[in-house]
Amino acid sequence: STVFGELPAAAVAQMKSRGVKLGDSDQKAPFFACGVSLVIHPKNPMAPTVHANYRYFEVVDPATKKPIWWFGGGSDLTPSYLFEEDAVEFHTLQKEACDKHDPSFFSRFKKWCDEYFYLPHRKETR
Fold first, then answer.
1. Can you state the angle between helices 84-99 and 105-116, rounded to 10 degrees?
2. How many Cβ atoms are within 10 Å of 36's Cβ, its own excluded?
3. pLDDT, tens only, 95-112
4. pTM
5. Angle at 12 (CA atoms; ends 116, 5), nearest 5 degrees
6. Which of 45, 120, 110, 42 is nearest to 76 (CA)?
7. 5-32 pLDDT tens trace
8. Which of 13, 18, 19, 41 is most buried, with most CB under 10 Å away?
9. Rounded to 10 degrees, what is the CA torsion of 34, 39, 124, 106?
């Protein structure tokens, strides 16, 4: 999906409060965002469900008129029946992709995912 338009001044102020460096202005700001999301629910219960969601977001700093952009998203594996080798392969591939950019990414992002995808009724992460 793709969306674009103007972020209201309140949204610009909220983004700044969360650490996005948007200059000194709290004016409206043009933005563009796009993303792709997929979910695979195999019929075979021995194959895990896989979810991935990746997005790109760009906003034009109202003070400097320069674009600020970032990527976000992630993926997870939710098996009906856990096969340790599937989990090891999934996380190995994720780590290899992260390590190409920054060796600290995988452990940081894995921690975030484990907290976000915690299933309290199962007392486990996805």
1. 130
2. 11
3. 999 999 999 999 999 998
4. 0.72
5. 95
6. 110
7. 998 888 888 888 888 877 776 688 899 9
8. 13
9. -50
CA distances 19 to 35, 44, 92, 97, 120, Å, are: 22, 44, 31, 26, 30
Catalytic residues: 51
Integer angstrom CA distances of residue 27 from 8, 42, 47, 65 = 7, 47, 49, 11
Q: Which of 96, 94, 49, 102 is nearest to 73 (CA)?
A: 94
Classified as helix, coil or strand, 48 is: coil
Residue carrying the six token digits 């983004």: 15
Q: Does residue 18 contact residue 11 with C-beta atoms inside 8 Å?
A: no
